[in-house]
Amino acid sequence: MTEQYGKIIEDLRHRGTLEIGTDFEAGVWSRVHQIENRQLARGRNGLAAIMLVTALSVGILSGGNDALASSRSSFLSDSPDYSPSALLHVLP
Question: What DSSP string runs through 22-83?
């Protein structure tokens, strides 16, 4: 692999800088920007896919459960000791 890079660098050294266009650097950075945008899009799409699969799995797994109403009363709200009149020490 490094031998190939060495050959490419030697080839560029022999050609000189006159053959490289003035827009070469802008083209390189444009290409880097395109590659980076594709990688970010892939990451966003992957995250969206994971979220979708998770949401569908939770919905499917929890959809079959019965909803049961509780017949127990709440200790805090149904007790006469905690009613507003008892807390304010007012007789009903």
Answer: TTHHHHHHHHHHHHHHHHHHHHHHHHHHHHHHHHHHHHHHHHTSPP----SPPHHHH-GGGS
